[in-house]
């Protein structure tokens, strides 16, 4: 397993960051590589983001060398979204089928997790968010049809989008992890518009389903001191609790959002008026 580290920066530090430095601190690029499992350990509430693209052989997560416990999931839970072709996850020998856009909740205490593709020529593309957990909840697959769907925004303002909440108290229990997928359809531009802050939770955005020529301009920073990151398909943006997070795409796109922190209250946010942004 390949594990990078992101230490995290405070709001005052972004004033002095070059584009490269900003990207190195707040983005994880290149997580999805054929046949590989890659991860980044962040110091943002200790969330680990990961990507696995199994081909002929499954990818396995079991040992906890990088997290300081005998097993990876001894003190952690995880959500895994399949962003690619049909695949499967085996949790301590029990297999769950995971079609594209299905998710998996992996509970604390899991021993061995194996991730595989049904067809190596059209591999699954697994995206993981793992966070510290203080309770055991049963692992389970969450098919797309079982997610809670909500719609936000307005086509006339270019910010209509559909959110599916997979790991959410109204769908099934987890300790502190929340995870969902937002679709920004053809002709729409903005996500998370108007933006918000949630000082009690960090968030990671995993952008996917962008055409190779398209980019999302992701905005971050304090409301009165914003910066932007230009992201492509498969890029991850780390959003500390002090930062806004919103984006505008040059074509259709989707993203997985994952959060952890003090609570699982999706509505525990402070809206930020667009007119206050600088
Ligand atoms: O488009 C949106 O709005 C989102 O997807 C918002 C994220 O879910 C989020 O920021 C949750 O706090
Ligand atoms: Zn948010």
TrEMBL record:
**What pathway annotation does it carry?**
Glycan metabolism; pectin degradation; 2-dehydro-3-deoxy-D-gluconate from pectin: step 4/5
The family database entries (Pfam families) matched by this protein are listed as: KduI
- An annotated GO BP: pectin catabolic process
Q: Which reaction does it catalyse?
A: 5-dehydro-4-deoxy-D-glucuronate = 3-deoxy-D-glycero-2,5-hexodiulosonate
Instruction: Print the keywords alphabetically.
Output: Isomerase, Metal-binding, Zinc
Top EC class for this record: isomerase
Question: Which GO terms label this protein's molecular function in UniProt?
Answer: 4-deoxy-L-threo-5-hexosulose-uronate ketol-isomerase activity; metal ion binding
Question: Does the record's keyword annotation contain Transmembrane helix?
Answer: no
Q: Which cofactor does it need?
A: Zn(2+)
EC numbers listed for it are 5.3.1.17
InterPro entries with a match to the protein in the record = KduI, KduI/IolB_isomerase, KduI_N, RmlC-like_jellyroll, RmlC_Cupin_sf
Report if keyword Zinc is assigned.
Answer: yes
NCBIfam families in the cross-refs: PRK00924.1
Regarding protein family, the annotation reads: Belongs to the KduI family.
Could you tell me what this protein is called? 5-dehydro-4-deoxy-D-glucuronate isomerase
Q: Which organism is it from?
A: Paracoccus isoporae
